[in-house]
C-alpha cells in the first residue's frame, strides 16, 4: 500500500463560509480592506457573508437595538456573529483579522475557538456547525440582556469576558492551553488565532499561527486607543518583558 492510499480524508463538518459584520454603513479602512483581501487569498473557495442592516433585523432583541442606536457597532456584532454561526454554520472573523494560512484543518471540528492570552478566550476567529449547543448557550445570554444599564450607562462588558465565563462552567481551564470541553468545543493556544498581544505589544506568531487579530478596537474611546498606541510604541522599544518590569518598579515606589 503506497503513501497516498494510506492517507485518511477528514470529512468537513463546518461549511466553508466566512461570516463578518459591518454595521453603521461607514467606509472600510485600508487596514480592513487588506485583511479581507487576505481571506480571499488564503480561503479562495470560501463564501463570504457580510452581515449588516440590510440582512439582519436590528430590532430583533433589545440588546442589539440599544447598542445599534448608541452606535456601538462592535457590541451589535457580539450577538450577530453568534446568530450567523448558529443559523448557517461556518467561521466568523472580525474585519481586522488577517488570515495567513488556510483554515481547512479546523473544519473537521464541531466547534472551535482559541485563547486571546493565558486567561481569556478570543472571539475574532471562531467556528461551528449550524445549530451547535455551545453557540445556542452564548446566544441565550443576550436574550433578556439590556445594553443600557439602570443608571443609563452602557454595559461595555466584552464578549471575550462573557464567553470565557460561560465556558468555565463547561470545564474550561484558564491556562491558555489546547483543550476540548465537555460539550466538544475545541480551544487552541493564542498562537493559533491571536498571536498579537495588543496590550503589551508582544508577538507570539509561530508556524502554527493561522490568523492575526490586529485589534483596531474602534469601539473604544479615542483617548483609550491613543494610550494603547503609545504603549505599543514603548513596547516595541523595550519589549513586553520591559513593560512588565517597568510596572513592577512603579508598583513598588
From TrEMBL:
Coiled coil: none annotated. GO terms for cellular component: membrane. InterPro entries: Glycosyltransferase_domain, GlycoTrfase_DXD_sugar-bd_CS, Nucleotide-diphossugar_trans. The keyword Transferase applies. GO terms for biological process: mannosyl-inositol phosphorylceramide biosynthetic process. One of its GO terms (molecular function) is mannosyltransferase activity. It comes from the Bacteria. Signal peptide: none annotated. Keywords: Transferase. SUPFAM superfamilies: Nucleotide-diphospho-sugar transferases (SSF53448). PANTHER family: INOSITOL PHOSPHOCERAMIDE MANNOSYLTRANSFERASE 1, MANNOSYL PHOSPHORYLINOSITOL CERAMIDE SYNTHASE. This is Glycosyl transferase. The lineage of its organism: Bacteria, Bacillati, Bacillota, Bacilli, Bacillales.
Amino acid at each position: 500500500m503506497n503513501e497516498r492510499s494510506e492517507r485518511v480524508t477528514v470529512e468537513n463538518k463546518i461549511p466553508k463560509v466566512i461570516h463578518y459584520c459591518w454595521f453603521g454603513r461607514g467606509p472600510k479602512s485600508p487596514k480592513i480592506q487588506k485583511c479581507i483581501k487576505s481571506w480571499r487569498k488564503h480561503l479562495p473557495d470560501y463564501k463570504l457573508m457580510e452581515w449588516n442592516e440590510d440582512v439582519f433585523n436590528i430590532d430583533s432583541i433589545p440588546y442589539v437595538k440599544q447598542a445599534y442606536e448608541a452606535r456601538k457597532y462592535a457590541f451589535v456584532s457580539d450577538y450577530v456573529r453568534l446568530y450567523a454561526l448558529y443559523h448557517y454554520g461556518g467561521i466568523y472573523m472580525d474585519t481586522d483579522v488577517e488570515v495567513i494560512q488556510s483554515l481547512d484543518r479546523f473544519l473537521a471540528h464541531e466547534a472551535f475557538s482559541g485563547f486571546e492570552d493565558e486567561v481569556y478566550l478570543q472571539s475574532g476567529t471562531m467556528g461551528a456547525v449550524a445549530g451547535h449547543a455551545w453557540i445556542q448557550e452564548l446566544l441565550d445570554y443576550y436574550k433578556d440582556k439590556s445594553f443600557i444599564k439602570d443608571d443609563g450607562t452602557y454595559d461595555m462588558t466584552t464578549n471575550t469576558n462573557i464567553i470565557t465565563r460561560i465556558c468555565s462552567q463547561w470545564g474550561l481551564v484558564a491556562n491558555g492551553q489546547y483543550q476540548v470541553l465537555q460539550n466538544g468545543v475545541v480551544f487552541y493556544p493564542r498562537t493559533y488565532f491571536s498571536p498579537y498581544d495588543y496590550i503589551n505589544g508582544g508577538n507570539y506568531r509561530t508556524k502554527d499561527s493561522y490568523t492575526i487579530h490586529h485589534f483596531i478596537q474602534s469601539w473604544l474611546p479615542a483617548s483609550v486607543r491613543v494610550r494603547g498606541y503609545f504603549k505599543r510604541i514603548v513596547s516595541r522599544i523595550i519589549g513586553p518583558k520591559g513593560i512588565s518590569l517597568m510596572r513592577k518598579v512603579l508598583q513598588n515606589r
